[in-house]
Amino acid sequence: MTELAHPRFFWQFPMRLVRHARLDEFLPDDGHLRILFLWGKDCPNCDIAKGQMLLAQQRFEWLDVEWLHDNVYEDPSMATHFGLHGIPAFFVFRGAKKLGRIGQWPGTEAFVAAIEKLRAGPGVAQAPA
């Protein structure tokens, strides 16, 4: 099924698809920063986030940050795992440790500022040379 608002989002903004059954495999304890984007097909608030991310794509691309995603409508066990009450939701991990959650969509400025703060924080893993 094709999404209506941003059908090519994941081609334009590459993220690795992860399912709940394999989540631990995608979160190795290596100290690297990862963002898990939980969304749903034709979710209006998810479409707003995707649209804003596409408008300023370069602001969301960090060499030391890996993006993961899952459509929780297709994988409801992921939503249950994180106790979701709404989407989009973004979970930030350093290695296997969950650092926090950005619930709903705060807008480009607030999102980027939050990630920049985490990138600069203690225990930051260095990007591979």
From TrEMBL:
The lineage of its organism: Bacteria, Pseudomonadati, Pseudomonadota, Gammaproteobacteria, Lysobacterales. It comes from Lysobacter enzymogenes. It comes from the Bacteria. InterPro entries: Thioredoxin-like_sf. This is Thioredoxin. CDD domains: TRX_family (cd02947).
